[in-house]
Amino acid sequence: MSAEYATFGLAPAMRAGGVLADGAVQVHRDFLDFIVDGRPLLFRLSDLDAVSPLASDVPPAIFTAQVRALLLEADPPLPGGRYVVYGCPECEDLGCGAVTALIERRGDDYAWRDFAWQTDEHADLDLNGYHGLGPFLFHGDEYRAALGALLDDTAPTTDRRRVLLIGARVAVLAKLAAALRTIGIGADIAHDTNDVTADELRAYGAVAFGRAVGEEERAAVRHSFARAGADVSYVDGLAPIVPLLVAQIENALDRRPPEQRRLVGLVAADGTAGIEVTSSCRVRITTYRLDRLSRTHTHDLFDAVLEPGHHGIPLDPKAVKGESFVVARTTGSVLVEAMAR
To answer: How much is the pTM?
Structure first.
């Protein structure tokens, strides 16, 4: 292979949703990211909160149109032969800003070049160009095979955004289900799985247990899912705190390998959050604490861009005393740990 060529592929990715400490809601989005030379292209764009046009929740006709556009089988959506590579995860409006690129044929191959940040129909490469990103030249066969597979019935799906909630505190479960539905994750509440069909069980991506659910009940639920051949993640709820539980469930739904994540490590001990990131990104740290009266106290303690590597973030002792929990969040993932003593 000539040194000027880059490899092209696709891999499941997500924009983690959540209920933030200030009450704001961040919508969950599943999408396919572009893998260039073995690394997600989105990671080369620092801390951009965006999704590709290949999102799992868009209507099939629009999804197909997006794929055909990237294959240059349809006219470009923007002047100058430019295509949207990443857009706003909340509304996908160009006015919110989007990363665009010129996509063109070079013989049998495809080239992506002149990346820019764009908020209207015309890109200003001098002012808003991503200088140093690309150009990328992809072998035509590899490029067409990756995108063309999405037009087949055999294309992999990333849409398993349903969670089964099992617990004793009905009020907490109802609030949790409502919060999950608000951010785009389906949620159902049940006491057990005795009357749930195998097809229904296979539709879930995760099962969340409340703290009051006994081990015998948990084992019965796991047996039901195993018998149905359902591959799910299990969440042991840390505390009856809705934003904390939402974060745990978001983490459980993230099945990507470490090399396709930005946030890959969180250790909470001795008043410090140990963070590991694989690429430059913004990290936010929030703590939740239950006092002796079971009241919840929430603290936003850190919000900054971290470079790749390990970082130790000191936490306010008042925020992590007693029974407390740490949530570390980037735009693409979230990790949760109980504060160890």
So the answer is: 0.85
